[in-house]
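Researcher: Next entry in the queue.
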Amino acid sequence: MVVIISMEAAKLKYEAQKRNRDLEETQSRIRTEFKLGVTSLQIYLSKLSRQYTALSNQNE
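Model: Structure for this entry, 60 residues:
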């Protein structure tokens, strides 16, 4: 009986650790994708700003 409970506890602990690793990997992937998205947005906004400045200078 004690052996079965110990085996069940070990199995649950392993599954919890695996879920934690999976969650950490997912969080890491989301952070990376978010940072890439922010960087892309910054580049896009910078280009728009340069275009706006160029157009403004043409109209003067």
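Model: The chain has a mean pLDDT of 95.
Researcher: Noted, moving on.
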